[in-house]
Known about the structure:
- Helices cover 37% and strands 25% of the residues.
- By secondary structure, the protein is α+β, with helices and mostly antiparallel strands.
- The structure holds methionine sulfoxide.
Amino acid sequence: MTVPDRAQAPVLLQVDAILSRLTGRAALEEVCRFLRLSFAHYPWVGVYRLHGAELVLDAWDGPRATEHVRIPVERGICGQAVREERTVIVDDVRSDPNYLACFIETRAEIVVPVRHGGRVVGEIDIDGNSVRAFDASDRRFLESVAAKLGDALVRSAAETPPG
Ligand code: SME
């Protein structure tokens, strides 16, 4: 249990508070910051938006930027999660041939699809620095967060693209 049930409710309430105050990309950036701040095993948190056959990095928080700001859906753990429309947990990225490397210290990854009107519109991507950093409690928690982000992702798509 890396995110105990009792820790989930207050964080989910805080995510609701962020989403009532901010919209679109600003909301996604704040949620990334808040998740990273809340859990030490979430050192890099990003949100990708599905745009045609590509994933576009809309918001992130972490020590460094990733070079993977656009990922074709046929590539990476990120692509796998949207293609298969399910959460993907990789215990050790060094033994996953699909993994696209971003940071030297990354050992584990979790990618959780975000839906809007039943359709996958993007995903939450978290890189962890230890093997088996993520378990079923992270999956449950992040699927609850993802269920709140559909509107913000769709609004973000309507905003001017970043950079
Ligand atoms: N590792 C991901 C690429 C994105 S970075 O983790 C930020 C993947 O394999 O799709």
